[in-house]
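Intended use. Records like the one below are meant for learning the mapping from a protein sequence to its folded structure. Do not use them to infer anything beyond what is encoded.
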Amino acid sequence: MLNESHAVDDGRMKNQTSPLLVGGKALGYYDSSSRQRDNNLVKSSSARDHLANERTYLAWVRTGLALLGASIALLKWEDVSSVTAYIVAVLGLTVIVLSTRRYFHVMNLLQKNEFEPNVGEALFIVSAALIVIVVTFVLHETGNLYHKA
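Structure written out for the chain above:
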């Protein structure tokens, strides 16, 4: 005898339901007729992850390019020492190189269904930015930040 949820029509079953089990306890029922059987949910999640990785990469590249642009502007500005501009340029190039490395690393991890937190590179970028701030502050306080006319 069939339940109401398993009505037969033309020899096929409609509204097939199965219990949704979490920790051995039934939390409800999963309606399999409304889902496709080719794991599109997993594929779309994977696509979302890859697209998020790409967006993050492009944001870091944009940040690196902005730092390079700022370094060019600092070189054109006659009052500021070129040392400061070169430090900002090196930081911008470092951001671009590390973000490219991280992009491909995360892409490989996503293909393996793995995840690894980005602790080392994040600490490196923050440390480098703090060093640039400290060096700029020291150059400013000692009067070496500006060209002497």
